[in-house]
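Reply to dn_fold:

You asked what the input looked like. This is it:
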Amino acid sequence: MRPHRTDGVSLSFGVLFLLVVAWWAVSRVVTVHLPAVGWLVAGGLIVFGVIGLLGALRSARSTPEPAPAPAAPAEPELPGDLTPEVHASIVRELMEEPVERIAKDHPGLSPEQPRKS
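and this is what came back:
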């Protein structure tokens, strides 16, 4: 079973239930003459105070890890020693009317002719 984070609410109610059962078991064996409601409220407040202290101490010990810094966007690799401006002008030239450029460079090639692989 994988370890998981402790659920504070479930733990609090579990401890409170155990305290009520322990109080009931002790009262069956030993007769204690105490004002029941006052001591029960005081005991409950003490229990919740201890649970709050334990929770505060536990959260103070665990410091969250700092979030990793976002990576800088990668620069695109340019072929050879071209500057970005020269590379952009070459790409722009290649993208302008590619069919006309190919027809001018290869006059014997027609659009219906199959390409050589």
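The chain has four helices and no strands.
Hope that clears it up.
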